[in-house]
Structures are given as structure tokens and as C-alpha cells.
Amino acid sequence: MNMFKPTSAKTPEEYIAAISEPRRHEVEMIHELIQKTAPTLTPHILSGMIGYGTYHYRYASGKEGDWSLIALASQKNYISVYICALENEKYIAETFKDKLPKARIGKSCIRFTSVQESDLSVLSDIIKKAVKVGGAGEVASFK
Questions:
Q1: I need a surface site. Which of 28, 48, 101, 118 has the fewest CB within 10 A?
Q2: Is the pTM of this model over 0.85?
Q3: Segment 30-59, tens digit of pLDDT
Q4: Where are the alpha helices (DSSP H) in the chain?
């Protein structure tokens, strides 16, 4: 079951264009920040959101597949930025929780209702760290 809002968008630009203002402008700001901070991660549509980069993962359980290192989604009540990267067996987003006190942070997800609840320089630092360490469960030979 897909937990993300379905979209008919085929490109990140179509995805953003389908969002109503003022949210569209905020999602566009974050999209541009991700592209500027991680220019090697190609944006694409994945599971109803914008994904950046692709990596192959394999967990000890045997489950494997392909996913994006970073993803951006406009949900009904908030904007989500997913950081699918671990360092020292801890999700990177969680390690920045104290630097984003107005955002709600789950294991790999940073949620906020507006960009004002986030610090874009901290978000940039999180993105840089994710690019440096790679995806959660990433298969090293896939690169």
C-alpha cells in the first residue's frame, strides 16, 4: 500500500505545478535547495513524491530494492523531506532534531507546515551529510 498521495505528475516540475499556493512556492524553494546542495542526485517522481538520486538497498532480512536517498512530498497538512541515510546505525534526520525544534522529526522524515518552521541552512547540512554517507542499507557494489 502506498502511503503517499497519488500524483499523475511525470516530472518534478509537473508535481510542483500541481500544488496550490502558498505551498507551491515553499516546495519549490526546498526542491531548489536540494538540487543546489546535491547536484549529482537526479530528481524524478517516485511513489507520489519527488525523489533525488537512486540507490539499491539490501537489508539483513533479505529484503532489497531501489529507493531515493532524499525525497520531497507535499502532504495534506505539511511538507515532508525524507532523508534515507544512516550514520552509526542512526538516521541522520534524527541526529539534527535539536537544530530543527519547530519541525517534527521521525526516523528519516522531517515534517513542517511551512518553511518558516525549518532552517534551510540546517536542511542543507543534513542533505550534504546524506550524500556523504549514502543510503540506508545501500549495497556498496551498486554504485
A1: 101
A2: yes
A3: 999 999 999 999 999 998 999 999 988 887
A4: 12-17, 23-37, 92-95, 120-133
